[in-house]
Amino acid sequence: MQSKRFATLFVTNDFGPRAGGIETFIHGLVERLPQESVIVYTSQQGDTTAYDAKWLADFGVKVIRDKSKMLLPTPRVIMAVRSVIKVEQPKALVFGAAAPLALMGKFLNVPRKIAITHGHEVWWAKVPPFNLLMRLIGNSVDHLTYLGEYTKSQISKPLSKRAKSAMIQIAPGIDTQIFKPVDASKLRLDLGLAEKEVIVSVGRLVPRKGQDELVKALPQVLKSHPNAHLLFVGTGSYKKVLDNLIADRSLQKYVTFTGRVQYEDLTKYICVGDIFAMPSRSRLGGLEVEGLGIVYLEASACGLPVLAGDSGGAPDAVAPGLTGLVVNGRDTNEIAAGLIKLLETDRKAMGQAGRKWAVAQWDWQIWANKFIKLIGD
User: Fold this and answer.
1) pTM of the entire structure?
2) Is the terminal CB of the chain with fewer CB neighbours within 10 Å at N or C?
3) What CATH class does 8-170 carry?
4) pLDDT per residue over 71-108, tens digit each?
């Protein structure tokens, strides 16, 4: 029996309960669409009965799980999605990540087809033969979305003229009611940082995020700011490397690792900082880059001046001179100078400007409204 209520079908590997940046992005869009208007076709992730039921109860989202742990654009998956389309007859089909699932677009008959791009489509657009597949993806949907000007400039290179002109910016928004300035004085005290100038960095501990360069820059910062302290929030494979860098420089009392923190506590940990820093850098010949750097925007929304690296689309998340600085993520001296400049600037004024910018340009509802218009036009 045909359902009349589900106007939009999402096909995606990234719907949870596994956590990740793309999942957060897709959830943010789905949560803000009209109740009982979305059906999600996604991959198998163990026993998700309670998780899927909560989406139905809270948002009216019907979740259908494929039998495979990873959806690929195979004939079997295409036939399975066709069956859903036949029953539900959605008006819009949204691929949660363009590469590779949107290769199915040509074989699915839905009035409107949208494919969301992230960071990994950048290297698809650069490397043969994936660049040819990226062109095919662009020709298989009505619109490709992009995060910011950098990702647009890279992903558009192999696209046809029509696909290029049809690209529309849809970025992950910031929940500015969650990420906002809060009193973190007790947490600062608990962490032993009450009298410190705290440089907070939130993110996975991996080479691309540039935590190692913050450690290398710290001795220069300490010369003029002896109370400076690095606070790393997050976990990752690079922890041992960072520990060795810290030990080699005898910086143990100037650096704190929190480990993993709960999402609901993240705002407070950001607000422990006086400034935020993540000097990200591109790797693998420009194939591994920041797609946007949503954490910079979260820090701005919390009222912190931001220091970002110049990797990929990270600069799109900073208004240089207004909300923070963009530096070469491989230049230790430039990073140190940037940190010192932010510590010595009018941090309150820059933080307020960052908060105002985040609310005006990056609030989730702005992007949700744009996305609703896109799937409904």
Assistant:
1) 0.87
2) N
3) alpha beta
4) 999 999 999 999 999 999 999 999 999 999 999 999 99
**Contacts of residue 75, Cβ cutoff 8 Å, sequence gap at least 6:** none
SS (H, E, C) the chain: CCCCCCCEEEEECCCCCCCCHHHHHHHHHHHCCCCCCEEEEECCCCCCHHHHHHHHHHHCCEEEECCCCCCCCCHHHHHHHHHHHHHHCCCEEEECCCCCHHHHHHHCCCCEEEECCCCHHHHHHHCCCHHHHHHHHHHHCCEEEECCHHHHHHHCCCCCHHHHHCCEECCCCECCCCCCCCCCHHHHHHCCCCCCEEEEEECCCCHHHCHHHHHHHHHHHHHHCCCEEEEEEECCCCHHHHHHHHHHCCCHHHEEEEECCCHHHHHHHHHHCCEEEECCCCEHHHCECCCCCHHHHHHHHCCCCEEEECCCCHHHHCCECCCEEEECCCCHHHHHHHHHHHHHCCHHHHHHHHHHHHHHHHEHHHHHHHHHHHHHC
**Residues forming CATH 3.40.50.2000 domain(s) in the chain:** 8-170, 185-361
What CATH number was assigned to the domain covering residues 185-361?
A: 3.40.50.2000
Torsion of CA 162, 91, 96, 267, to 10 degrees: 110
- Percent of the chain having pLDDT more than 70? 97
Query: Per-residue pLDDT tens for 116-127?
Result: 999 899 999 999
